[in-house]
Amino acid sequence: MSEWRIKKHPILSIPKRKKIGFYWNNQKLLAHEGEVIASSLFANGIHVFGHHVKDHSAQGIFCANGQCAQCTVMANGIPVKSCMTKVEENMIVESLEGLPELPMPVSNFRLSGSKEVKTDVLIIGGGPAGLSAALQLGEKGIKTLIVDDKDRLGGKLVVQTHKFFGSIDDCYAGTRGTDIAKIFEEKIRKHPSITVWLSSTAMYVFSDKKVGIVTDGKYYKIVSPRILLNTAGARERFLVFPGNTLPGVYGAGAFQTLVNRDLVKPARRLFVVGGGNVGLIAAYHALQAGIDVVGLVEALPQCSGYQVHADKIKRLGVPIYTRHTILSANGKEHVESVTVSEIDSDFRAIPGTEKTYECDTVLIAVGLSPVNEFYREAEQAGIKAFSAGDAKEIAEASSAMFNGKIAAFEIARVLGREDEPIPEDWYEKANVLKSPPGPTTPPVYDSLPEADITPVFHCAQEIPCNPCVSVCPKGVISIPGDSLLGKPQIANQECIGCNKCVFICPGLAISLVDYSEDQDNPVVSLAYEVYNYEYKRGDTVLLTDFEGTPLQEAVVIDTVINKASRKTQIIKVRVPKEIAKRVAGFKIQRDEVTVPKDEITRDKIPDDAIVCWCERVTAAEIRTWIRKGIRDLNQIKAVTRAGMGACGSKTCGDLILQLFKEEGVPLEELTLHTTRPLFSEAPFGVFSNISY
């Protein structure tokens, strides 16, 4: 089991946890107390959780967030999502192979009495937006209930080991997401007007203005919350390509959950599809966990995420292929390789440009879809409803925090607990925090002074970020117009070399050049956070510029890490002054990791790609009915069963719309399918007084 456990991490502490035994298909295995079944199986090197009843294809995980049903297993005779269900001592876990026998009927079955709870505000989702809103409401004494289906508060904050962008005052810029989650939880627990229900799933907002909640294995109803705030986040989008359902193909968010929350190493070599911030950050997190990153493809001419995130992994040796797409994931029971190719301006693969790379994992990071069902249901039921965070608009967590604050202010006004209007600058800040990155322009080094100590900025893009300005004790750094948007500049030459700007920079895009001892051969201090690749004094490193282009080799003359470093290490090298300002990092990953295989693998034609995972419906089957003129998704569902599976079309819904778009059918011509009554499935036992 230890081979698949993370034993050392540059940011996260490795707690000592009690080991417990459980059974997987009659084989006794060890797990850590408190972790979910899926992570326990991964920790034992088990990535295949079963085989589909329809075509016997191998099944694994995809979202690790309870949104799909790919990881379903039997636990003590009950079908459960293994990514959401904690393993217990001597639990009997079995794969779904064929149809399981139904349990014997219980004669004393009776419905449990539902507990009715009243609250001013119900917040569904304990992520950055929900917690920020709750704090604002709590300060005004407004009775608030937070419901979250995880066992801890923070949402995606608990898997974010990198430092956040934005401003220190508004969204904890320069602080790691894991630490922000702890700050929020500590503050939330102090407010007597805020109640938190963890491991609790919102089922539906009913027409009688009551919200069904399953918590502690029982069914409750929240009676008529005066206000509902939906901060349930987002679900990951997927792609249609041959091999897309192989175990080893899963969402980047799922990977971060396994690595950064559960401290499980789910891969040895991975490939990332998608150059947004989620994909770029996941690649960086993989390196921190000691996992090789073979490469990353992005369909656009440049990554849509922050350039500092892209440059950061390129400096470490991860190649990024823009204007590329995935053609197929290859393997029988698990991913063994991935085939990619260049694409033209119409996003079509260019024949002859295919390359196949050996890997055991393919991360899909091609965007997110808001989980907005609760907002729609509340509106239909006549409950006053608000949304914030990704449930309203996909943006960075820094934006989600600030917009949660605004939503809380609006709610307080509706409840008559706030008379003042929302400050105008709040909306301005909110727009800045969610603004897309600006155009990429190379850093300018020639104008930087060669004073005793000079900070050098390797930012190639304007993004909402200024913590380096806030922490500088001498006011050396400024941004024109005191804006969050803009590149930092040198305001004076009083730098004392405290390294605070180097430590706090979320993009690791600041170095210090020290000319004080040797004007011709200054010392360059570089930020470093990937300690699985350990460097000490006397080691040789290959230095790179801001976007990963090799400069020259250099010898490490010193390393520094202390309490003030925010768990960021300083690596010092001495270099000729001609390149000193251009040195932005150094390469750690071996070239052989990123070399493609000689042969090209394409086992299937694209029409064979699976669109509906649950019912194994292919793109060809759906295209057939689209070409016959069907424009009603309910008919598509009836004739193909696409969307009829356990996930309730949460995974395939967007893909089916994508197929209509590819066939040239305007989306306004479509009749969308009728959603099922419940948002999330639940065992019948939670509605009864029976204990199994």
Walk me through what this model shows:
It is a single chain. The chain is an alpha/beta fold and 692 residues long. It has 4 domains: 2-99 and 238-364, FAD/NAD(P)-binding domain (3-Layer(bba) Sandwich), CATH 3.50.50.60; 115-234 and 370-433, FAD/NAD(P)-binding domain (3-Layer(bba) Sandwich); 453-593, no CATH class; 606-669, Arc Repressor Mutant, subunit A (Orthogonal Bundle). The protein has 16 helices and 37 strands. A 7-stranded antiparallel sheet has the order 27-30-31-34-33-32-35. α2 (128-139) links the parallel β9 and β10. The chain is globular. The two termini are 30 Å apart.
What distinguishing features does this structure have?
alpha/beta; FAD/NAD(P)-binding domain; 4 domains; 7-stranded antiparallel β-sheet; 692 residues
CATH topology of the largest domain: FAD/NAD(P)-binding domain
Total domains, how many? Answer: 4
Task: Give the overall pLDDT as a whole number.
Answer: 89
Give me the number of helical elements: 16
Sequence stretches where pLDDT stays below 50 over 5 or more residues: 102-109
- CATH homologous superfamily assignment of the largest domain: FAD/NAD(P)-binding domain
Instruction: Quote the beta fraction.
Output: 15-25%
* Intertermini distance: 30 Å
Structural class: alpha/beta
Outline: globular
DSSP E strands, number: 37
Per CATH, the class of the largest domain reads: Alpha Beta
- Measured on Cα atoms, how large is the radius of gyration? 26 Å
